[in-house]
């Protein structure tokens, strides 16, 4: 059988047995036809070296890593099909490594933009939640789930919160966040629902809600508060979200000299690899440090 016939049989299998959609079949057809035309001797009898040469050439042809990953996936599935049909006795894709996904840099905001968001906050509650998302790097899920008992006691400068997986961590609060929380707590009682049942549900939470079924502010409502603040502050709402404030917290810490291990602890990341998206910030700071402080670098 020719490559074209084998590709057609493979696509028929995907459609009949796996319910693949038309656009998926079209993409596989294009990818395999490209490989058939590029691989020396065609796909049916291609050696592992020939397939590896084709993959290596994708970069030289200007194909993106995403396209390369898709084509490698198509080839792997195609050769598994040929093995199952006894067309081939080996899999020439077994040694292939897919191109790694490039980790996009986290979106963030400048300090001046954060200050504008806080300045335009419509209430003590809104100011407090912005201060906690940025000043403490909380996840929005952590913020809305804060019970009233988590509020710092007089003289305390920290909170104990429950993060991902039910793991507790200590969150240190700066003076602005503490002041914003104090103001929110003073105003909070007056904002509780009048209905007794609703009031009982809402009273448990640091950020209560009169309309939510469980009595606490929802993540969507927090996002809406930030969108409104962004508009008032003259910042595109598309650039502002709870997670962007968390990224800003980490980015500004690293820019200020914090090491990644400290940032990992403050963010509640289980693995340092998650925190390493901020390495680019640290590298820039260290380069500046060497260029300005090292005696040889300062020589003209």
Automatic annotation (TrEMBL):
Location in or out of the cell: Cytoplasm
Active site: residue positions: 139, 164, 243, 246, 269, 278 (o-(3'-phospho-dna)-tyrosine intermediate)
Gene Ontology cellular-component annotations: cytoplasm
Record's keyword terms, sorted: Cell cycle, Cell division, Chromosome partition, Cytoplasm, DNA integration, DNA recombination, DNA-binding
GO biological process, one term: cell division
Domain of life from the UniProt record: Bacteria
Tyr recombinase domain: residues covered: 104-291
Domain Core-binding (CB), chain residue ranges per copy: 1-83
Parts forming coiled coils: none
Chief localization: cytoplasm
Single GO MF descriptor: tyrosine-based site-specific recombinase activity
Pfam families for this protein: Phage_int_SAM_1, Phage_integrase
Task of the protein: Site-specific tyrosine recombinase, which acts by catalyzing the cutting and rejoining of the recombining DNA molecules. The XerC-XerD complex is essential to convert dimers of the bacterial chromosome into monomers to permit their segregation at cell division. It also contributes to the segregational stability of plasmids.
UniProt subunit comment: Forms a cyclic heterotetrameric complex composed of two molecules of XerC and two molecules of XerD.
Protein family: Belongs to the 'phage' integrase family. XerC subfamily.
PANTHER family, per the entry: PHAGE INTEGRASE-RELATED, TYROSINE RECOMBINASE XERD
Protein name (database record): Tyrosine recombinase XerC
Protein's organism: Terricaulis silvestris
């Amino acid at each position: 059988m020719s490559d074209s016939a084998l590709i057609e049989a493979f696509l028929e299998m995907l459609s009949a047995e796996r319910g693949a959609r038309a656009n998926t079949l079209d993409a596989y057809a294009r990818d395999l036809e490209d490989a058939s035309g590029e691989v020396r001797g065609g796909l049916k009898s291609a050696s592992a070296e020939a397939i590896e040469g084709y993959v290596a050439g994708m970069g030289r042809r200007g194909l993106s890593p995403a396209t390369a990953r898709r084509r490698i996936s198509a080839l792997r599935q195609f050769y598994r099909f040929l093995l199952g049909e006894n067309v081939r006795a080996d899999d020439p894709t077994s040694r292939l490594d897919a191109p790694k996904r490039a980790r996009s840099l986290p979106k963030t905001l400048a300090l001046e933009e954060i200050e504008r968001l806080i300045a335009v906050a419509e209430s003590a509650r809104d100011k407090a939640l912005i201060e906690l998302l940025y000043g403490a790097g909380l996840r929005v899920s952590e913020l809305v789930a804060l019970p009233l008992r988590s509020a710092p006691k007089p003289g305390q400068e920290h909170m104990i919160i429950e993060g991902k997986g039910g793991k507790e961590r200590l969150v240190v609060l700066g003076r602005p966040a503490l002041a914003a929380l104090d103001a929110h707590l003073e105003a909070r009682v007056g904002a509780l629902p009048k209905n007794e049942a609703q009031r009982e549900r809402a009273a448990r939470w640091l950020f209560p809600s009169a309309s939510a079924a469980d009595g606490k502010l929802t993540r969507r409502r927090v996002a809406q508060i930030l969108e409104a603040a962004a508009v008032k502050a003259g910042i595109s709402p598309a650039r502002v979200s709870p997670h962007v404030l968390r990224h800003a917290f980490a980015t500004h810490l690293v820019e200020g000299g914090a090491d990644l291990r400290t940032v990992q602890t403050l963010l509640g990341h289980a693995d340092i690899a998650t925190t390493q998206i901020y390495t680019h910030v640290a590298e820039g700071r260290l380069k500046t440090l060497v260029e300005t402080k090292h005696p040889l670098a300062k020589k003209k």
